[in-house]
Structure formats: C-alpha cells, structure tokens
Amino acid sequence: MASSSTDRVLRPDNGRFDPLANALRALAIDAVQQANSGHPGAPMGMAEMALALWGEHLRHNPSNPAWPDRDRFVLSNGHASMLLYALLHLTGYDLPLDELRRFRQLHSRTPGHPEVGLTPGVETTTGPLGQGLANAVGMALAEKILAAQFNRPGHAIVDHHTYVFLGDGCLMEGISHEACSLAGVWGLNKLVALYDDNGISIDGNVAGWFGDDTAARFRAYGWQVLGPLDGHDVSALSAAIAEARRSTDRPSLIICRTTIGRGSPGRAGTAKSHGEPLGAAEIAATREAIGWSHPPFEVPAELRREWDAREAGAAREGEWARRFDAYRAAYPELASEFERRMAGRLPEGFAATRAAAVDGCTGNAEPVATRKASQKVLATLAPAIPELLGGSADLTGSNLTDFPGCGALRVDAEGFQPGRHVNYGVREFGMAAVMNGLALHGGFIPYGGTFLTFSDYSRNAIRMAALMKQRVVHVFTHDSIGLGEDGPTHQAVEHAASLRLIPNLDVWRPCDAAETAVAWTHALEQRQRPTALLLSRQNLPAQARTTAQIEQIARGGYVLSDRPSPRAVILATGSEVALAMQAQALLDAEGVAARVVSLPSSTVFDRQDAAWREQVLGRGTPRIGVEAGVTQGWGAYGCVASLGVDAFGESAPGPKVYEHFGLTARRLADLAKQHAAS
Question: What Rg value do the Cα atoms of the chain yield, rounded?
Fold first, then answer.
C-alpha cells in the first residue's frame, strides 16, 4: 500500500528508546523487509504501547492460549500484525522465529493480517478496520454476562479484561460508532481501548478528512477518556492502563499520541512508513538511530528473558485453577456447566431438545409465517440451551427473536441485568460484529435479527464470521417481495443468492415450520460455521411429509412430492415451495408428471454426496427452478429454465406483487410443461 503523500506528523516524545520496545520494532522491520510487503510504521509507533500493556498488565499464559479467564487482546488495526506476531513470539507462544521469517508467505502462521485459529494467541481475525474494536465490545459483553451468570460470593471465576489497540482508520469507520455507543450503554468497565493517535493514514495527514474531537465523542458515549498522553512514555501508558482497570462503571479510551514509524530518520511520521518496507538503507539508519546493533531477526538473550511470560502466565493460570477447584467443590453443577459452555459443547440432552423442537412444528396444518415458526422453535430451544443469546436491530416485534422469559439485557438503577435478548438498536453492522466477539470469547451462541435486505449493512461481519469459522446465527426475516407494501427498499431480491456466495456460510430458506425447526437445530450443531436463516413475513402452508422426509430436511434438499416417471423436476425454496406444489397439481390434471424438490439450503445440499444429489435431482429429467429472487444461480443445478425476480420489487400487497412478476402456479406449470421430457 504505497503512498505518494509527503505529509509528516511528528509527535513530541521523551526521546527514549527502550530496548524491549526496540525488539518489537526490529522484528517488525526485518519481517516486512524480508517479505518485501507489509506495514512497518504502526508496529514501530505502537511498540511502547505494547510494552506497557503486555509487559505490565496483560494476564495471559502463552503455554495455554485457551485459558478461559485470560485477558483478551485485540489488534483492531490488523495491518500492524507484525507487532502482534513479535509479541507472541517473544512472550513464549508457539510461534517460532522461522514463522516470523516467513511473514506473509503461503501456509505460514504469520499471514498479512492476524487470523484466529491459525496463530496461537490471536483472538480474532482483523484487517477490515473497526471490526476488531466491535469484536472487543462483544468479548467484553461476554465477560460481563458470564460473570453475572457464574460468579458467586467469594468465587470470581470470570474476572478478566478485554484490551484493544485501534487506529485512526478504526475510528473513521462507522462501525466504531455503533459498537462504542453500545459499550457505553452497557457499562463495559473491563473494556480498555488504546488509540494509536498518529495523525497519518495512507493518504497523508488525517487532519484533512478526520477532524473529530475523539475525546468528546467517547465521553458522550459514556466512556472514561484518559489522555492524550505521550504514546512513547511507557510509565505514563502503564499508569493510564492501571487507572482504566480500576473503572467500575465505564469502558475506557486511552488516547496515545504516537509517531508512525518512530525511529526511522527518513520515514517517521509519514505515510511512506505505513504500507511498504523501509528499504535496506533506511533500516540501517533506523538501527543506528534507536541503538539497535543486532543482525536481522536477532534478539539478545537477556531481552528474550525479560519478554518471556510463560512462567508468570502459568502461575496466573495455576492460581485461577486453584480458585476454580474451590468453586467446583462449592458449586459442582455450575462448574461443569461453565466448562461445557466454554468448550462449545451443546447440552447432553440436545438430541431430545432437537426432537421436541421439530415435533412441535410438524403436527399443525395451519399456515404460519416462518418468522413466527422460528419464534416457536426458540421457545423450545432456549430454555434447554442457556448459551443462546438473542437480539435484534430494533426489529424485535418483526423478527420475533425474543422468547418467553428471555428478559432484556439492561443496565439500570439496579445495576447490570443480564437478560438473554439484546436490543442492539438500529445497528445491523455493529450487531453482527459484536455477535462475532461474543462467539469468539466463548460461552455463547449469539443470534440476531433484522430484515434480509439489511443484511447488506452487516455483510462484511457475516463474511468475517464465516472466515473465522464462528457459530453465529443471523435471523433475516421479510425475505422477499412477499413482504408487500414496504416496497423495493425492503424487498430482498438479490440477497439470498448473494449470501450463498460467501464460503462457509450456511443459508437456509425454509418453506414451513418443519423446515424452520430443522434449520435452527442444524445451525446450532455447526461449530465451525455461521448460519443465515431467511424467513418469511407472510404465512406459508404446512407441507405433508413422512418421517423419512422430515429427517431428509437436514440434508438441505430432498424430494417433497414425487410422481412415477416424472417428466420434469421443479426445484423450489422457501415460500415458492407452495407455488411448486400448486403447479404440480395443475400438471397432474394435464397429464404431466412432475417431481417437486424442496431445497431449503443449497449450501448444505451441495455438501452431500453425489449419490444423494442425483437421487434427489434425478438424471436426464429437465429441471426448473423457482425462487422469489434473482434467477442466476439455478444453472448450477442444471435447470433448463427458472422463474424468479430479476428486478427490484414494487410497493403493493404481497400477492399482487407476486402476480405482477409472474410468480404464479399457472406460469410455473406452463414453464415445466414447455420443457418437460416427451
């Protein structure tokens, strides 16, 4: 990310270069230079911030990165990844020096931006600016709720902080407003954000496009604001962190005035240090300027000993383990439940809960909107799965994401009320990223609702959940033109197809209550992927099924209604399954046998073995697809024709809009008849 800017922002500082901080600088400089790619400036500028936090305050155990009560650290400005890799390496995580030498190389554990699950000690995948900050809010919320649910007098087994480094870009992104406003409302006092205020971005001095009074902004959110202070003064930074840790009712922002690329005579304070290697000559000048005479990738043994946190980390975890043993002796059931939830395991009785949820949705022939069926399913699942934490982006009454007895999460005059339904306000993107943080922390399966068309607001956070393999459930209601009068601004057309393009995201569009129940239970069983549930506003008829067919729903696609020697196969999703069944009846009367395949989740169906897919789709029989959305995707299933909506919707009652776009049983039957095998 080379820059042509000649702007320079140099912050006054104490002029001292701590050797421990220089070790971080040097490793970052060397790795970026060897890769001939990366961002050296931010690690050089934040080295003292990292030393103050990691050297004096962060409670972690490099030998066990999964210790439940460790502090969480998030590098929201993920382009500074070499700072984090240097910290992990020096403090003793399983990240050898050879991995730093392989920075940004194929299959290394030091990718360009931090990736959770790949590098030990990395808590979340960051790079899209602002999302790491929102993830940190979710982690801090998880800590606060778990503490309320599990801690008992004399037994504080959940008691840790969440720290996040962030930069100007994170604060420019709108998601920072969404998430930080919520953090203030929730009183997340164990959230500490350190703002790398260096005044430089890729285009140069940010004063030309970022004139916010950041301190006033965060005070207005209800945060404690410390600084601005010299971001290169380790003592001042450490004192500010200590003060932030003492907060009892507010999250804290520490404004750290830093110089990007600090120590580089020719690049310090410039955008040129942000996203390109310093070059051999400038590296030599930098080494001389900071007093670092060691060869590339070499850190003296005495500095390594000072950085090594393994002994201290093991002692901290050991002390916690002793306290947890006392907790287990006093509260054995709570201790077992805490361990189960932090391990991500569903309750032992989940099979029975799943059966009850599905059975409760198969005995009623009354038409029901799948959003209403979803709420009914939640009423069965939630009491048996206490880690389910729901919410909505100010559409609870429409998304129907609440359930009996859920209680609302609130902070009021009586203190923190850890309800199981979160009112996120009109903050779709923030909600999605906070849910990612909740899932990453552990102990929760978060779900949140909004209208399907507004999935565009939260799309990148959905993508990040898929990339990070996190179990997050998105409840997207009002899934098509069927919502009617609200018109094209609210009628999803391209959204189902678009979401299906995201790797590792399961997308379900159920046709009735039974498919909705299976979709929900399937989503909860997916420990390595998020799920999007696309649900109808309008009532949909219940379809008759055998026991075998109910079981087949979980395969993503199955034969719902068949005829001997079918001459056409109609593939349908969601509300259009009823249309397909009506078309089949019309074709029966006209002597054309047709099979109806319900495809509630093409993403799940695509993972089935070839034999099942052929059994369902048939071989050599013409296929017609129908969905109230764009028709582009049906070619993947060998459809010779399709019926859908390849334009924006219209404002009118739902049935009228369907008729306007030709989504009728008669037209579908004619299309099938036109292409039927002779």
Answer: 28
